[in-house]
TrEMBL record, chain A:
The species this protein was found in: Solibacillus merdavium
Chain ranges of the Helicase ATP-binding domain: 167-306
GO molecular function, one term: helicase activity
Helicase C-terminal domain location: 347-490
SUPFAM superfamilies assigned to the protein according to its UniProt record, in alphabetical order: P-loop containing nucleoside triphosphate hydrolases
Name by which UniProt lists this protein: DEAD/DEAH box helicase family protein
Keyword presence, Amino-acid biosynthesis: no
Superkingdom: Bacteria
Coiled coil: none
TrEMBL record, chain B:
Pfam families listed in its UniProt record: Pribosyltran
Residue spans crossing the bilayer: none
Coiled-coil region list: none
Name assigned to this protein: ComF family protein
Phosphoribosyltransferase domain residues: 118-199
InterPro entries named among the record's database cross-references: ComF/GntX_DNA_util-trans, PRTase-like, PRTase_dom
CDD domains xrefs: PRTases_typeI (cd06223)
Organism: Solibacillus merdavium
Family that this chain belongs to: Belongs to the ComF/GntX family.
Length: 490, 201
């Protein structure tokens, strides 16, 4: 090794240092050798922590190792809850006072505060600390060429146009809004722009509010991008230690990232709880790198989002047609007076009963949406009396996935559900009824999404969607109007 | 507690609380969970252990509660059972002694879970025991539990001498913890020692 190379190594990496002559008198025989002097961070640790914000005491690595890295200055440290000037959770950026609990902490012998908003990810109180990797990304040029794009599907003209527009926006580092009706094939639109970003060595995150959607997207992305590491992050998922260039995550999981992504895609941008929860919106902002573009994808953009798009001059793509080119099924209204009372008298309202029997006769799978879990639980045994395979699902149901699968495989004739199944699911030839469409939980966007479950299959492009109601609300009218508008478009 | 509770501590649904003369004049403890969540806990109808009163059966809901309270350290959940504990223990004549935590465990958990339950129910209590080992009964087999050497040491012996005592713990599984504490207290000169647990496992 020539001296110049050594000096370069010394200068840039500081890994090796020839033993200095003044000290080496004792061991002059080994003078020619160089001794290991520096510290090389383990790739695994570097990969894991890049872009993440993580609890100091609870990492997937041995504590002593983490402490060594901290001592060597590889991590930034911050208290988990900032107390001054006002309580703020460093992880989920929550600032709402009622969400903080103060107590006398036996560990630090002082009053401690913790944030209940993100407690499911492990409690963090003001005497706990979070660590963030300081050094830059471990991206190397080698990784860039390794992205493999194995998607053979074909986009429709509309999809292609939207994909091109999104790509242009991302290249210009500009935010983008894709407004496409339910069943327009939004996921396919994302493939090509994501591929381009990955090829450019960018780190991409697809965030969505619901675990179900992450689970559905994950295998599809895995198939399309076979060479790169993709992580699916949701509550209860395993921690992978590799560096993933593409991450699919629920918006909650974004709490654990900071300054991490070059491209952020928010799928179902309007879905509960994303619209309601300020903290989640801030989490999206926190997880992306400064000025990294965000692409919002939704079938029902809120007015706020549309205004923001216009004022801040984001890119905008609009698709009014489904991928199979057929019109959207338009909901019809049917009065179901005092449905709640009838259910509590242990009866199914006659019109609803007729509807269900019709579906059973025609052998069509069906979904019935209920406004509350309580009412649904009241109704379930009554429906099971007609047809024993009918089941109910709600957000706290651990067997939700299986039940939906069974409906898809035609092992079940129908499902009762709350709004939890309003989006992200596709069942061939499904027919839908909404019981109590007048209830405030059924906002116009929820009703549009629910109507969007019908007729998604190319071979069954239509179907029945009924709003059973106790009085027509503005939200119902608005949903119907918007669907009709889409059908008149072009 | 920092503020009045407006949402169910367990499911975040809004609580529709009534506020009337009774609440104003009698200073009842606040409602903290919704009726739906309350329903999921099952009361013990008939006491199964001698000298021990338990309030609830161990079921899925209780498992979830313990997980959130003891392992996720959500200290505010101490208030979930405030009313019932208050109701059960408010007229207690005996001296209430919670099972203590080992100091090291206390530091990792950051709070003593039984003390907090009692505080939330505004029941006065006193510590006369010290836990000697920091091993957890929950991690042991039945045989190991039965062979455990004395877990507790009594402090302030003079105060409990000849007294009637009530030991409070969160869960009764094999009874090892309560028996050890009971033995230690009886040896130190207590007259009677009974047990009270939130859950019968």
């Amino acid at each position: 090794m020539s001296t110049t190379t050594i000096s370069i190594i010394k200068k840039h990496y500081r890994l090796f240092r020839p033993i200095s002559t003044s000290k080496s008198t004792a061991s002059s025989s080994s003078q020619k050798h160089t001794r290991y002097y520096g510290f090389i961070p383990e790739p695994a640790i570097k990969n894991f922590f890049t872009g993440r914000i993580w609890s100091r005491m609870n990492t997937p690595y041995p504590q002593s190792k983490i402490e060594t890295y901290i001592k060597r200055g590889y991590f930034d440290i911050t208290p988990a809850v900032i107390t001054e000037p006002k309580l703020k959770c460093r992880r989920c950026l929550n600032e709402q006072r009622p969400k903080f609990i103060s107590f006398h902490c036996a560990k630090c012998q002082k009053t401690c505060h913790y944030c209940r908003h993100c407690i499911t990810m492990g409690r963090m109180c003001s005497c706990d600390e979070l660590i963030m990797w300081k050094k830059e990304q471990p991206r190397s040029r080698m990784q860039k060429s390794q992205v493999d794009f194995t998607w053979t599907g074909k986009l429709t003209v509309h999809q292609q146009k939207a994909a091109d527009e999104l790509l242009t926006s991302l290249k210009q580092n500009r935010n983008h809004l894709i407004h496409a009706v339910c069943g327009a094939g939004k996921t396919e639109i994302l493939f090509a722009p994501i591929y381009a970003s990955l090829k450019a060595g960018k780190r991409v995150c697809v965030a969505t509010p619901r675990t179900d959607v992450v689970l559905e997207l994950y295998p599809r992305f895995q198939q399309v991008f076979q060479q790169i590491t993709i992580h699916a992050l949701y509550g209860g998922a395993q921690n992978d230690t590799q560096f993933a260039q593409l991450i699919l995550a629920t918006t909650h999981q974004l709490y654990r990232f900071e300054n991490a992504f070059d491209v952020m895609i928010v799928d179902e941008a309007d879905a509960f709880p994303y619209t309601y929860d300020e903290a989640l919106q801030r989490a999206v902002m926190k997880a992306r790198k400064a000025k990294a573009p965000i692409a919002f994808v939704t079938a029902t953009p809120s007015t706020k989002l549309l205004i923001q798009q216009r004022n801040e001059k984001w890119g905008y793509s609009f698709i009014a047609r489904r991928f199979h080119g057929q019109l959207l099924p338009v909901p019809r209204y049917q009065a179901l007076w005092n449905y709640e009372k009838v259910f509590y008298k242990e009866k199914i309202p006659q019109k609803l009963k007729n509807w269900v029997e019709q579906r059973l006769q025609n052998q069509q799978p069906f979904l019935i949406f209920f406004p509350t879990i309580e009412l649904m639980e009241q109704a379930t045994p009554l429906f099971q009396h007609i047809e024993p395979t009918i089941e109910s699902v709600h957000s706290e149901d651990p067997d939700r996935k299986e039940k939906v699968m069974q409906l898809r495989n035609e092992e079940r004739k129908g499902l009762l559900t709350t709004t939890i199944l309003e989006r992200g699911i596709t069942i061939k030839n499904v027919q839908v009824a909404v019981v109590g469409a007048d209830n405030p939980v059924f906002t116009s966007s929820a009703l549009i999404q629910i109507s969007g479950r019908v007729g998604r299959n190319m071979h069954y492009p239509s179907g029945d969607i009924v709003f059973f109601h106790h009085g027509i609300t503005m939200e119902m009218d608005q949903a119907r109007k918007k669907i009709l508008e889409m059908n008149y478009y072009e | 507690m920092n503020k009045p509770i407006q949402h169910c501590l367990l499911c975040e649904r809004e609580l529709n609380q009534s506020f009337g003369w009774e609440e104003l004049l009698r200073k009842t403890l606040p409602q903290t969970i919704c009726p739906r969540c309350e329903q999921r806990f099952h009361r013990v109808e008939q006491q199964q252990e001698e000298g021990v009163v338990s309030l609830y059966h161990y079921n899925e809901a209780m498992k979830d509660f313990l997980h959130r309270y003891k392992f996720l350290h959500d200290i505010v959940l101490a208030h979930v059972f405030n009313r019932i504990l208050h109701e059960q223990l408010k007229n207690e004549k005996r001296l209430v002694i919670p099972i203590p935590m080992h100091l090291e465990n206390l530091k990792t958990r950051t709070f003593a879970h039984i003390d907090e339950l009692l505080k939330a129910a505004s029941i006065p209590f006193a510590h006369h025991l010290i836990k000697l080992s920091n091993e957890q009964q929950a991690l042991k087999t039945r045989e190991q539990r039965l062979q455990t050497p004395q877990l507790f040491e009594v402090v302030n012996v003079t105060e409990i001498k000849g007294g009637n005592l009530l030991l409070v713990d969160d869960i009764y599984t094999t009874g090892t913890t309560l028996n050890h504490a009971k033995r230690a207290l009886l040896q130190a000169g207590a007259k009677t020692v009974k047990g009270f647990t939130l859950i019968h496992g």
